[in-house]
From TrEMBL, chain A:
TM ranges: 33-51, 58-77
Pfam family, one: DUF2160
Highest taxon of the lineage: Bacteria
Species: Kumtagia ephedrae
Alphabetized UniProt keyword annotations: Membrane, Transmembrane, Transmembrane helix
Protein name stated in the entry: Uncharacterized protein
Automatic annotation (TrEMBL), chain B:
Membrane topology according to the record: Multi-pass membrane protein
GO biological process, alphabetically ordered: transmembrane transport
Residue intervals passing through the bilayer: 7-34, 67-89, 110-134, 154-178, 198-220, 258-283
PROSITE patterns per the UniProt record, alphabetical: ABC_TM1 (PS50928)
Organism: Kumtagia ephedrae
Identification of the protein by name: ABC transporter substrate-binding protein
UniProt lineage: Bacteria, Pseudomonadati, Pseudomonadota, Alphaproteobacteria, Hyphomicrobiales
Record keyword Metal-binding present: no
Family: Belongs to the binding-protein-dependent transport system permease family.
């Protein structure tokens, strides 16, 4: 029984360590940091592809890199 | 700490297999996607070309058309499979004579290899020898020719996918339905709920995780379908059934354009992840995780 109790306690501790804080930012869902990094990467790729398709003839891709990175940072910090 | 060490030790084989067969190949494909590499071309060396492969694919009409056809295929196939799978699962919940036999017969398509499914459907739909064109002509006077008519070819590929994969959906939803407790249904009946209300307010919310998992699995499969369609139509007529998996296959193997094929593979993976994530957010996260700020 003592062994089982130890394992339960250890599981609880591991759960506490693994859990990441969730919060509501300007995104319409509650997210943890992994969700926000994920969304940031999605938007980064989408922006890059759309920029290459529609805007690169007029505005260089470097501008898109900067904007996409800024958007990613904003989502991770405030999303 | 001891528990964590044991945990990591137990997870180690899985992590190792995932790394060797999943993460390392993905990183390699990502690496190749930023290179021009055609080992059988004029210059067989791998040459770094930045985002040129991605720049090429956003203007590639063939690729964009194949993505559109794939999305249509995935939508019709998965939606039909879930609806039909649910109805069959409900049917299997009821006691009826021959239920076990029919359940076995119904599950048989699952054990057939996709390439064989494609071959069988090709035999069944070939004009002049196939049973389907014969019956359609005999009963309705309809001349089915999937080698000539793009719409027919598309519809037949969807029906073939439904035939092959509906049993998986049925089994998953049947397992979910069997595991549901009886009490909420009894309470709903006592409260005077009709069958539709019981389905909408009791059954559906309780089996939502199972439906979601099934849709994820089927959506991912449908987006990367190659062998069945390759065997049935070869991507034709024209490019009517040239789904994106087939498009990648044609680029990577017959044309040996590894760099561009890798770039398209990465983008298809990206699209699959985005769709699954949006589906998850739409069906689960917004409802379960939204809290007042």
């Amino acid at each position: 029984m003592k062994h089982a109790a130890d394992l339960d306690q250890a599981d609880e501790e591991a759960g506490t360590l693994a859990a990441t804080p969730e919060r509501t930012g300007f995104l319409p869902i509650v997210t943890n940091w992994f969700d926000r990094v994920f969304i940031g990467i999605y938007l980064f790729v989408a922006l890059e592809l759309l920029w290459m398709r529609f805007l690169e003839q007029a505005i260089p891709l470097t501008v898109c890199h900067v904007l996409a990175l800024a958007l990613g940072a904003l989502i991770v910090w405030r999303g | 700490m001891r528990s964590n060490r044991v945990g990591w030790l137990l997870l180690a084989p899985t992590i190792l297999i995932l790394a060797v067969f999943g993460i390392v190949p993905f990183l390699y494909v990502l690496y190749v996607a930023f290179h021009q590499w055609n080992p059988f071309g004029a210059n067989p060396n791998m040459i770094y070309n930045g985002a040129d492969n991605f720049r090429r694919l956003v203007f590639d009409a063939e690729f964009l058309t194949s993505v559109w056809f794939t999305l249509k295929f995935a939508f019709f196939a998965v939606a039909s499979e879930v609806a039909l799978g649910y109805l069959l699962a409900q049917l299997f919940m009821k006691d009826s004579p021959g239920k076990g036999f029919f359940r076995t017969i119904h599950t048989l398509p699952l054990i057939v290899a996709p390439i064989v499914v494609g071959s069988v459907w090709r035999l069944m739909t070939t004009p002049s020898i196939g049973i389907i064109p014969y019956l359609l002509n005999d009963w309705f006077g309809y001349d089915l020719n999937i080698g000539r008519d793009a719409t027919s070819a598309f519809v037949i590929t969807v029906i073939m996918d439904i035939w092959h994969w509906t049993p998986l959906v049925t089994l998953t939803l049947l397992a979910a339905l069997v595991s549901l407790p009886k009490e909420p249904f009894e309470q709903a009946q006592i409260d005077g709920a009709n069958r539709w209300q019981i389905f909408w307010h009791v059954t559906l919310p309780m089996i939502r995780p199972a439906i979601l998992a099934t849709v994820f699995i089927r959506l991912m499969d449908a987006l990367r379908t190659v062998d069945e369609v390759w065997m049935l139509t070869g991507g034709g007529p024209g490019a009517a059934t040239r789904y994106v998996g087939l498009h990648i296959w044609k680029l990577v193997f017959p044309k040996t354009d590894y760099g561009y094929g890798s770039a398209i593979s990465v983008i298809v993976l990206y699209l699959t992840l985005v769709m699954c994530w949006l589906l998850y957010v739409g069906l689960v996260a917004r409802r379960d995780r939204k809290r007042p700020s």
